[in-house]
Amino acid sequence: MTGTAEDPRTDPAIVAERDIRPVVQRARGAPSGLVIAIGLLVAALLLFWILDAHRRALTAPASLPQPGVAAQDTTAPPLYVPPAPPPSPAVVPTPQPTPTPTPAPPPAPAPQPQIVYVPSSPATPPAQPGPPRNLAAPALVVDNGAPVSSAASPTPPPSSKKTGNDTKDAVVSNTDRAHAAMFSDPATTVPQGTLIPVILETALDSSHAGFARALVQRDIRGFDGSKILIPRGSRLIGQYSGDVAQGQKRALIIWSRLIRPDGVTIALGSPAADTMGRSGVKAHVNSHFFARFSGAILQSVLDLGVNLASRSADSPVVVALPGSLQGIRGSVTQPDKITPTLKVKPGTSVSVFVARDLDFAGAGPTGQMP
């Protein structure tokens, strides 16, 4: 063979027939960003238009103009001026008739004079001349420096009862000059305002007035502190009252006398106070609550019972009988007449507020300062 036989595997036609490859469609291109932006803008405008139309529909008036009706002229009509009213007829007053003058009443007849008997007045006896005054007798005049008061307006005596306002006004108005002075013997003087601590020996019950007794707790020295003037163990005697006011919670004791162990005694006249210097002694208060209000409760129950018993069986009206409980009301004790009772136990620590200077110069001290 002159020519070489072609290999069928290299023949393009045969190779093309045998080369069967899958056909794959190319993917579509994604939309660009500009197209997406334009779409979003259109959607936003459409949404705005829909919402605006909805808002206009809500705010539109309820009554809509009917179709086919021509729009009315909005110009204002001309003003109407009413014609002037006709003049009213004049009213002529009717003349009043002239009143007839009333004739004057005739004058009353003059009273006739009457003869009246008047007894003659008795003769006044002549005044007896008084005893002659001796103007030449000497007069004794005593001048004590007091201001002369007018005889026409005598000065009323001062009242012994003074209230708190009167005392305050007297203190404020007292502007006299005060002069300083020294104690005659400071070593033997317990000055005013000293607090003496004591312990009650006796109990206190304000149901009845009575006496109280106490013992001094510690030594009390003179003003300069050099001498013991009131030794520990000195005894005090006082008195308390049974008159207790409503709401009172502190017992009032007036210490009248102090007796030292060596027999020296002195008048105090000073009130009791607590350990802080407050006036009075703190006490246990029995207000008698049930005794005060049991009478009122009993009286109310009796009034209700009498009213219920006095009404009719078929009538809801309650009729009160006047004077039906006069005897019961007189026997019931009034609440304001029951006063509270104050009680203080023995052994209570109290104080004595010295109300005036105590001078022990005549008695002498009980000991010297160590």
TrEMBL record:
Q: How does it sit in the membrane?
A: Single-pass membrane protein
Keywords recorded for this protein, A-Z: Membrane, Transmembrane, Transmembrane helix
Check the record and name the Pfam families matching this protein.
Answer: TrbI (PF03743)
Keyword Transmembrane helix assigned to the entry: answer is yes
Fetch the InterPro entries from UniProt: T4SS_VirB10/TraB/TrbI, T4SS_VirB10/TrbI
Any Gene Ontology CC annotation: membrane
Q: Where is this region: Disordered?
A: 64-169
Transmembrane segment boundaries? 32-51
Question: Which ranges are annotated Pro residues under compositional bias?
Answer: 79-112, 122-132
Q: Where in the cell is it found?
A: Membrane
**Record family assignment:** Belongs to the TrbI/VirB10 family.
- According to UniProt, the name of this protein is Type IV secretion system protein VirB10
Q: Name the species this protein comes from.
A: Stakelama sediminis
Task: Read off the lineage from the record.
Answer: Bacteria, Pseudomonadati, Pseudomonadota, Alphaproteobacteria, Sphingomonadales
